[in-house]
Amino acid sequence: MPSFSPRRRLHAALGVTAALAAVLALTACSPTTDEPAAGTPAADGAFPVTITSALGDAVITEKPERVATWGWSTQDAVLALGVVPAAMPAYAYGGVDGVLPWDADAIETLGGQTPTLLTGTDTGEIDVEEFVAVRPDVILAPYSGLTQDEFDALSKIAPVVAYPDQPWATTWQDQTALVGKALGLSDEADALVAQTDADVADLAAEYPVLDGKTFAYGANNEPEILNLYLDSDPRVQLLTQLGMSLAPSVTELDPKADDETYFYGLGFESLSKLDSDVLVAYFGSQDEADAFVADPLVAAMPQVAQGRFAPIVGESFVMASSAPTVLSIPWMLDQYVPQLADAAARVG
User: In order of start, what are the domains of the chain with their CATH numbers?
Assistant: First the structure.
């Protein structure tokens, strides 16, 4: 498979949207003599649109012109669909001047201006007045931790598209589809998902050593604790797309198996019970990764001792892998999968 740089993949992704938009525009301009029958569902891109979420309905009466996003990654889908948001979260972690690198590339490619950057990303606290000042036509937050109170408050400003089921659990495919529906760009969104899925499948085919290997995906963001992610988490789902499987021990060790959560904490004293072919964990810096493996209980893990450890290092890479999207997946995956495959090749 040819190797593409992140910027070339970005242009390819935006090209899918632009090409499909042109085709749809030509189709829309073609003469027609048939009127839709009464009761016929609205065509793709037609408004009004109603999107139901776990927190309530968003009724979007006409195509949004000013789009605000909230959460870790929704702006990626908006930008990939050729729309520069009026406002999006500021990212102190992983961003440059508050903007993630793949978003900055997309804004530049689209010839847009940096959106208003909303504060509170790191704390999760919403400043409603910031949204009021932006005057959005729609607020998109399908991958977020919105509470019911926040949803209700923001809905007084504009229709809010929240998560369909649980907070922080919407797949990147569903997130893209929801954004496409809200913007009247469902066909373009479907094309982006298909292209990204195909790129991931190509990588899986290029590294067959990953197929069937089990993994545990963690984060050492608490002292003496390895937080482990479950199969409801998008970062886990991305690795399963590559042909890997979440290790059964991850589920078996979960002390809160009946709770609706996407991760749990495992004390270092129990790390010996975490059985997997490969261990994946993310770190903001190399110093953090080094400190993790220097702990004797971590160093004793077979995955670490035998070189079956594939850390994700660097704030931007952490963000790209933690909230995968049609923009962040091509930005990081080409660079990370060879390292993951090297760890998988050491199994056995």
Answer: 44-186 (3.40.50.1980), 207-344 (3.40.50.1980)
